Fold each of these.
Amino acid sequence: MATCEKKPRSFPVPVIASVIPVSVLLLLSIITIFWRLKRGRLNVSLSSSVGLSRKELSLKSKNQPFTYTEIVSITNNFQTIIGEGGFGRVYLGNLKDGHQVAVKLLSQSSRQGCKEFLAEVQLLMIVHHKNLVSLVGYCNEHENMALVYEYMANGNLKEQLLENSTNMLNWRERLQIAVDTAQGLEYLHNGCRPPIVHRDLKSSNILLTENLQAKIADFGLSKAFATEGDSHVITEPAGTNGYIDPEFRASGNLNKKSDVYSFGILLCELITGQPPLIRGHQGHTHILQWVSPLVERGDIQSIIDPRLQGEFNTNCAWKALEIALSCVPPTSRQRPDMSDILGELKECLAMEMSSKMSMHDSVEMNLVLDTDMTPNLR
């Protein structure tokens, strides 16, 4: 009986020649992706959901285009105005699933045009962080342009710091807002590749949730730089009076440290309750000019917002002020990085919370001692 020996299969030379280059290319692609991941070059897309709640993730995942007819319906024919800025008016809206949203409509007279609108859409489609306002969707229908954001129940920080504000922020809340804002800005500067410079950081662009979590808004003027060391010469207007980096104003050179200066002014606002430009009988005084002589005298009580009525830890207040002043030297090279600022602010917040806990424990101990020492009258 004959046995049949199974011969090994042979592949034609052309097939082998075509498979090898494809395999090599595939291997190189995998190595490249792994290397970029290790280097953090894909941070924008891969770390985009860090710190987001389930509700925020459900909103973020939409990023849907809306028709102008849908925008009219969502806002109930633009019935309720909840804000206004350089881009246009902001209206309260309601989606079909029950989520409240804020709809920013580009006005015909807006100084921010189509270019800034598209820049904001593109950035918010890829940049996501718990301390950045999330984009739900957008409308780009001929001359009708709108951005649809998550709704922020407590408005903006500027409103909360006004003298006639009904809900006065306490010291711990102010420090937490500072930490939240620093986290959002640090993510833009160091968590994104390329780094993103906000360019118009100010109290009206810090929005607050119902739990007073702070989120940075208004990316219409943002610039993404090719490398961390880059600075760009900007010819068009950027920033808001009182917050603008003096070095940028003089030279037009924009970099991450321009945002650091603006953050320092914002922190001074939180500490003092004063606006960046303080109105007086002889015109406006910049907040740094107002605070400098008080710092020289060591008069922290006159620096801290008087509405707090002394309800703050003095050491913590001085530390917060030192952090703020470290952000505002006239030259950018003298200013710290946002990662260092964030670390210092977290220490400051921990100091305040520790002080409150110690005070609470002390009060409880006194109550116990008072109870033990009360005579038992029969």
Amino acid sequence: MPWRNTDDPYRIWVSEIMLQQTRVDQAEPYYQRFTDAFPTVHDLAEAERDAVLQQWEGLGYYSRARYLHEAAQTVVREHGGTVPSTYDGLKSLKGIGPYTAAAVASIAFGKAHGVLDGNVIRVLTRVFAIEEDSTRSATRRRLQALADALVDPDEPGNANQALMELGATVCTPRNPACGECVLEPVCEAADAGHPERYPVTPESKPIPHHDIAVGLVFDEAGRLLIQRRPDDAMLGGLWEFPGGKCEEGESPDAACRRELQEELGITVETDALFYTLKHAYSHFKITLHAYPCRIVDGTPTPEIDQPMQWVTVDELADYAFPRANRKLIEELKRREYAPSLFD
């Protein structure tokens, strides 16, 4: 892993932010691409936010990219471009919580702070057969105390990385390789013969599904209307085609017309359905229905925190979009689509 071959705190920080919600094999190409584009904290701080989001596109949880960008600007502005070397200094930066602060402090600066990510939680709850719900704050405090007590003060970075990678490669969620594990002699869950019982978590709820209708709003020059999502929304800062959720009993084309009236103050005529795709997020699934549209009344007037642009299909590549919208863009290019609404 490339972030294991550097002592640059900036690059270690970037890797830990990426790994918060992403598997190692998924994160590695994004890490390479991101650090090629922004090799230093100064480069990241000076970049336009849209450029940062474009490099992050497809990795998900986009608030991580926005916060990383803001934190880099803080490091340059308030710390002279030097990443803070203490746990508290790191934790003061936007987007850095206890886990990331401990990881960067231990790996980059040799500070004895135990990390507590999903892999470490799984190892510790199995070794100590912790019966309490691992998502509860009290249980997390107990686990953090264990991680801090167990970390090697002489080599905290290596100790933390070893524990994380033990969880990722040996003490796996399903079919853990207990016979290959160096902690098996002291592991209470392995001794009892049911390691997969841990960590204890609440019962999963059914994953909801939403039908989403979006408008491919064309002007007479063949340009498309796109809008940027509010920073405080899911996928904040990314661009999208305007639209929203279908209400109960509402057809997607009716939802498309209603949403564009509510969001932008325009009345549109819809053409035949252009494309339908399914996409899964971490906590819900969607079916996206896209309709070519022509404005028949009104002028698009977005909310102040949702700026809009008219762009050509080729220019869509210059903007950062959610993955579902990107699939739609690829289909527009593949078909070399031109609307029939103005014929």
Amino acid sequence: MGRIESVQNKQVKEWKKLLTKKGRKKQNKYLIEGLHLVEEAVRAGIEIEHILIREDKLDQYTIKVDQEPENLIIISESVSESLSDSVTEQGIFAVIAQKEEENAIHGNKPVLMLDQVQDPGNLGTLIRTADAAGFEAVIIGEGSVDLYNPKALRSAQGSHFHLPVIHSDLKKWISQFKEKSIPVYGTALDERAVSYHSVEPEQQFALIVGNEGNGVSDELLKETTANLYIPIKGQAESLNVAIAASILMFSLHQ
């Protein structure tokens, strides 16, 4: 068990860089904050590089940590504050290597695909809902917010530990699913779009949802099996992407 008290510590400076996309990409690591997320990582058997706990929280945070003693580090309040991205820092963090399991995605169960989803809260909610709906994986396309964004991680509530979540080329995956005769549904209001009520629930399909303002790109919509819309009965112009995707995920999955 180690101890770090100074924010000027070299290791602390490297961890602080994990709050930025550039820093995460360079180190190929990310930082999670909060007891719930750390417990979820431990329960999921995720390989954790370091667990950092504020000294005054040791008695409160009694988690089972299957780590070598040197991987558990006691930190000062000032170090904890410097690493926190929350309004109220919780005093417990974990440093984890980024691992994306592309080979774990086969399309045996539904797959959610995200095209240029830019709000981290939406991205995290979409991952959490895909987990709850029994989806196999989430594929994050180019132009979307980074999975490891602290706000996205808080919103996902640890669901990214439960199913593969990767950053990849959506067009490539559309082709692969269609080669396996797995239907790929876009979400749109174009001339091809049909109500989601007209689609029978299935065990295997891919669902693409898009950017908060512009929806799914035309380039991808041209490649889909069908494009779906949700009939709106009131006067609201549209639905939030996470809400719309939630309706479709639970309705379409058998």
